[in-house]
Write a structure and sequence with these properties.
The protein has one domain: Alpha-Beta Complex (2-enoyl-CoA Hydratase, Chain A, domain 1), CATH 3.90.226.10. The model has no long low-confidence stretch (mean pLDDT 96). It has 10 helices and 10 strands. Helix content is 45%, strand content 20%. Strand 1 and strand 2 form a beta hairpin. Helix 1 runs parallel beside helix 3 and helix 6 packs across helix 7. The N and C termini lie far apart (33 Å).
Length: 203
């Protein structure tokens, strides 16, 4: 349910479970973390995207009831993405919810379609977010807006997410992947060491 393509330094990992709103099992999360770890040694760019109209609804409901919602695998995945020395791009083909938020927050760039909505209903569900997610979210949008999402349960539309700095571009679904490829172009043409060196200079 995770598809990986590799082409000349560009890796694309696609969550392909559209019949379940791309909800994530522990096995899928572990596979994505493994891909991020491997990309650190081989890729110059890693794109994360989803199949269908939803990027990811978060944890698979059955596995969430069994403890996945608070499993350390989420933090392992976001940590692997944040630590990867390549350029990481979240190409958000639709709504992003719950723990899947951490994947996008850990990426260097985020591009979304106009229909995308962003929410993280931990207050309603009675869970704490993964520890690094509020820190990364606040770095992008500030503490008050972070609390609007995590504590007030607000769903943020794509245009508002762009104005807040939560996403970097909003483009239509037909050009989403092309936009991600365009953003990846310079890094793909560079050496892995050059990509890593520039990324290491940015706090």
């Amino acid at each position: 349910m995770i598809e990986l393509s590799k082409q000349d330094g560009l890796w694309t990992a696609t969550i392909n479970r559209p019949d379940k709103a791309n909800s994530l099992t522990k096995a899928m999360l572990s596979e994505l973390a493994d891909i991020a770890d491997a990309a650190a040694g081989e890729a110059r760019v890693l794109i994360l995207t989803g199949a269908g109209r939803v990027f990811s609804a978060g944890a698979d409901l059955d596995e969430a009831r069994a403890g996945l919602a608070t499993d350390a695998v989420w933090e392992r995945l976001s940590g692997a993405l944040a630590a990867a020395p390549c350029l990481t791009i979240a190409a958000l083909n639709g709504t992003l919810a719950g723990g899947a938020f951490g994947m996008a927050l850990a990426c260097d760039l985020r591009v979304a379609v106009p229909e995308a909505k962003f929410f993280y209903p931990v207050m309603k569900l009675g869970f704490l977010p993964q520890p690094s997610d509020p820190v990364r979210l606040a770095a992008l949008v500030g503490p008050a807006r972070t609390k609007m999402i995590l504590m007030a349960g607000q769903k943020v539309q794509a245009d508002e997410a762009l104005a807040w700095g939560l996403v970097d571009r909003v483009v239509d679904s037909e050009t989403l992947i092309d936009t991600a490829h365009s953003l990846a172009q310079d890094a793909r043409a560079a050496t892995p060491a050059h990509v890593a060196g520039i990324k290491a200079l940015v706090p």
